[in-house]
Amino acid sequence: MNAHVSQGGWPVLVLNADFRPLSYYPLSLWSWQDTIKAVFLDRVNIVEHYDHAVHSPSFEMQLPSVVSLKSFVRPTTHPAFTRFNVFLRDKFSCQYCSSHEDLTFDHIIPRSKGGQTTWENVVAACSPCNLRKGNLTTAQANMYPRQAPYAPTVHQLHRNGRLFPPNYLHESWLDYLYWDSELDP
């Protein structure tokens, strides 16, 4: 058994009412305690169980491993601009050298030259490339990103997130997760 589970983690995969994960990266997980509360508040349906139960003096319940929300939560179509989402859009690689180490983000048009912190002006960059480019434009530095920065959709971020499965996946979750990036165009 996985160390995460054997230490009492017992994470629960949370699916929307349509049986799709609320998010892939990070994977939509709740603690077993929050899940039990949601069960008693009648907010979720239990879909799968662990082979483990919790007990009180008068009650026993098998721990859920997968639940689905009773009410559909409409996913947002425009993801928030965050450092993490920029890295996810750029598949956690420097857009200048493809390194996956020591990532920061770089303004294509430097802020000192009027560049703004927007999807269309920011790319993931490793620290060495970011320092080398410095306060220069891409043309001045002769450094061009591998892909032009763009505002991604939530679907695009989810698709990229599928490229990075978490370290722990319980076997009861596998029928509800799709890590093949070819599934959804």
End-to-end separation in angstroms reads 35 Å
What structural category characterises the helix and strand content?
A: alpha+beta
| Strand segment tally | 6
**Low confidence ranges:** 1-7, 180-185
Q: Quickly count the helices.
A: 6
The H-and-E topology, N to C, reads as HEEHEEHEEHHH
Which strand order spans the largest sheet, edge to edge or round the barrel?
2-1-4-3
What percent strand? 15-25%
**Main sheet characteristics:** 4 strands, mixed
Shape: elongated
Helix content: 10-25%
- How much is the average pLDDT? 88
Structure description:
The chain has 185 residues and is α+β, with helices and mostly antiparallel strands. The chain is built from six helices and six strands; from the N terminus they run H-E-E-H-E-E-H-E-E-H-H-H. The chain has helices at residues 3-6, 32-40, 83-89, 127-133, 138-141, 154-161; strands spanning 12-15, 29-30, 44-56, 59-69, 103-107, 122-126. Strands 2-1-4-3 form a four-stranded mixed sheet. Strands 5-6 form a two-stranded antiparallel sheet. Strand 3 (44-56) and strand 4 (59-69) form a beta hairpin. It is elongated.
SSE map:
Layout: H1 3-6, E1 12-15, E2 29-30, H2 32-40, E3 44-56, E4 59-69, H3 83-89, E5 103-107, E6 122-126, H4 127-133, H5 138-141, H6 154-161
Parallel strand pairs: 1-4
Antiparallel strand pairs: 1-2, 3-4, 5-6
Task: Please supply descriptive tags for the structure shown above.
alpha+beta; two-stranded antiparallel ribbon; elongated; disordered N terminus; disordered C terminus
